[in-house]
Predict the 3D structure of the following.
Amino acid sequence: MLNRWLFTQIDNSALVVFRIIFGLLLALQAFSDVALGWVRRSLIAPQETFNFIGFEFLQPLPGDGMIYYYLIMGLFGLLVMVGYKYRFSIIAFTIMWSGVYLMQKTSYNNHYYLLMLLGIIMTFLPANRYASIDAWKNPKLRAISMPRWVWLVIVLQLWIVYTYASVAKLYLGWFDGSFFNILLRSKQHYWMVGEFLQEKWVHTTMAWFGFLFDLTTIPLFLNRKTRIPAFIAAIFFHLFNSFIFHIGIFPYLSLAFALFFFSSEKINKNILRGKKKFYTGNEIKVPAYRNLIVVVLGIWFILQIGLPLRHWFFKDDVLWTEEGHRLSWRMMLRAKSGRSTFKVVERGTRDTIIVQKTDYLTPKQNRAINSKPDLIWQFAQRLKREYAKKGKDVQVFADARVSVNGQGYHPFTDPKVDLANEPWYHFKHNDWILPSQFE
């Protein structure tokens, strides 16, 4: 039964077309990050980036090095698109992208995480077996089919992403539209739709549509009768997000995933123009490394299901503490703002220095640090290191207040705790984060 489910051969037209689109989007992401100045603002301008804790060894290249880094990534994306040295190209892009992802989290976005996961997944998929330079140069590589597990991996990964994204929205601040009320204030200047986006009923409608879309989109795509309406809804949803929120390639990547739900025969006929023979053999080909595939897939999906659940094992609400927020598909859920003051006290003295954060941080880092506890802790560690270079042993205290979805500002950190000498706990609550008081 398992062999039939995983290793039955099916037509690979969807995977072939997806690889071409995926590679193009990878290149566009890298090149646009350079052209629009994101690389310079996020990786070159900061004195120091906020890494994922434990990855401090990953630092931006000096000078304009990160611009060349991104241009090379874009080149690898183009090589993925045309299928030239595909395996090397997708591995290289994925390693480079993962390095950047772990190198800075001021501009954190769940979509960046998804792109890293897709790079890992695509590394193991036979996506270059047709319409590729690799298959043209080596006809023995050419194939018109793929094992069904390839399709399953893509669909299950998407289902996990969308399901967790919908479940995370199950709180009052989402359904009453208060999040969108804050988020869309900055869109008042938009041509034609700016004033429209300020209407309360629009906020409530967007909240419910977003929740229902995430919850139902994969089941509706899997059902032949509802597939076309689901695709129309997806086009509206993703293009709307692209226009309003400017989230790069990801709306178009999400639409590209629809290839895996439509008839492979129609994809072969209408997109590949019938140049590729359509596979109908339904053979079961069990490879010698069958058990390895099963084990790897099992471990992968245990991690993908387990990571987004970890915040339930932490004290307090993740909307407040942020502990367990990342890697959990908690996408565009809440508007948080904060205020923070850092004090440095040299041990053995009463000398107190009020830190001017703008001396150390970019404007975006300054905004992020006010409500993100891991960034607050990392900044305290940075101050400790800098004063240690001057031969001073210091304590660092942070007094932060945070507002969630426009509610009042409440104390966020314990101002009496020396954060410079506190450890960071990955797998339990950090007690210097004060209890939540928001509704």
Summary: The chain is about 50% helix and 10% strand. Residues 2-168+248-312 form one domain. The beta strands are 9-11, 145-147, 336-346, 352-354, 394-404, 410-411.
